[in-house]
Amino acid sequence: SQTIHQWPATLVQPVGSPLSLECTVEGTSNPNLYWYRQAAGRGLQLLFYSVGIGQISSEVPQNLSASRPQDRQFILSSKKLLLSDSGFYLCAWSPNRGTEAFFGQGTRLTVV
Amino acid sequence: AQRVTQPEKLLSVFKGAPVELKCNYSYSGSPELFWYVQYSRQRLQLLLRHISRESIKGFTADLNKGETSFHLKKPFAQEEDSAMYYCAPPGSGYALNFGKGTSLLVTP
Q1: Are B4 and B21 in contact (CB under 8 A)?
Q2: Among A32, A44, A105, whose Cβ lies nearest the Cβ of B43?
Q3: Quick check: B6 and A43 CB within 8 A?
Q4: What residues pair up with A76 in beta bridges, in sequence order?
Q5: A42-72, pLDDT tens digit by residue?
């Protein structure tokens, strides 16, 4: 069966520090991968998605970037965190276009 | 781009009362819509999809093309239904864009 792992679960980082959140999927190949940010009052915001290795689409211009170095690995990064980057970040995968998405447990990021 | 609108950020109902969480979409063609739910301290997960016409945990959602709506309904709300609910369209291309979500609170 397919599983999705996301880590770390919580992270406290100072302003200006770098960020790397990792997400891996097991039990499937060539998944569509997604990064979302969930903020109170703003719902679930799609940040990036990827349909294949090295292919990244950005939905919202911001201080973050994403990479997909391997088929089932999706990384969310920042060179210098801002206070406004605080939030709950979710990784998800889906098997095909327009189908159900499966979510990771999420990472609570607090930038101080 | 395809979008969904969930007009209510918070919906509070009493246990046993009917509940309807609204979702309107803008999409040309035949959309395939989903409802996702996030219970406290749990992963966001699929609740139901319109194409399967199923009832999950007493919830149903009917696609109304005339009103471009996909409202989620349950005739008798339970306290365990308290959660965050998201409506999702298929999105443009491969993007999966969710609505802003509605927080449902069922009080005894």
Answers
A1: no
A2: A105
A3: yes
A4: A21, A66
A5: 788 889 999 999 999 988 868 899 999 999 9
